[in-house]
Amino acid sequence: MNDWAPIAKEYDPLKAGSIDGTDEEPHDRAIWRAMLARYVPNKGVTGDPHLTLFVARLNLQTTEEKLKEVFSRYGDIRKIRLVRDLVTGFSKGYAFIEYKEERALLKAHRDANRLVIDQHEIFVDFELERTLKGWIPRRLGGGFGGKKESGQLRFGGRDRPFRKPINLPNMKNEFYGEGSAEKRNWSREGTRDWRTRDRDHERSRDKRWPERDRSWAWGESERERDSKEERSRGRERKDRDR
């Protein structure tokens, strides 16, 4: 556990299917498929993988020209590859953008994530197929993405980092705000961590207690009012009998 990190440094399908990266048994069939897969990165892909960005969740109508217009703001682009269906020629919703300089790559990685292009909020990350050891694509059961409805959640990436294990000893971790200010800001881009959720839970619980107190007080006053009405009716009957 000393080498635990919220972002995967090496791809393991079993860990990628875990909330905190500590699972020891697969919990769905996709993980089994990824563990049994023997994937070899596409040798036909050219370019420097360390200068390439992965851009996903694109509008299917977004073109290479639009991507060039947006991402050229961060630096000189060497190549844009919008992945299309071999049969129909339609976009599959993701692309790879290779820059000429590392400075432009890092700037686009930092600023372009969650940018809205053609009414779609995009996702930007470094290319992993050729840079992350053991990488298995989503079509073979791997990847870092997944659908909540199917129960096939994937963690360990930029979009869904691992959650910090409860029994993890105190250790310096830049992702959770113990590093530079820039990295602390980056950690707030994704989902809220466990500290935020616990704090929100406490606040909501504190808000509920006064409502309960008011309801109990309201019920008590109702009972007192009913008893007073009963006593007043009893006095009226006694007066009429006299």
From TrEMBL:
Basic and acidic residues compositional bias, start-end: 147-162, 180-242
Example of a GO biological process term: mRNA splicing, via spliceosome
Principal location: nucleus
Subcellular location: Nucleus
Alphabetized UniProt keyword annotations: Nucleus, Ribonucleoprotein, RNA-binding
GO molecular function (one): snRNA binding
Signal peptide positions (record): none
Region feature Disordered, mapped onto this chain: 147-242
UniProt xrefs under SUPFAM superfamilies: RNA-binding domain, RBD
Keyword Ribonucleoprotein among UniProt keywords: yes
GO cellular component: precatalytic spliceosome; U12-type spliceosomal complex
CDD domains documented for this protein: RRM_snRNP35
Chain ranges passing through the membrane: none
Matches recorded under PROSITE patterns: RRM
Pfam families: RRM_1
Keyword Nucleus: yes
PANTHER family: U1 SMALL NUCLEAR RIBONUCLEOPROTEIN 70 KD (PTHR13952), U11_U12 SMALL NUCLEAR RIBONUCLEOPROTEIN 35 KDA PROTEIN (PTHR13952:SF6)
Name listed for the protein in its UniProt record: U11/U12 small nuclear ribonucleoprotein 35 kDa protein
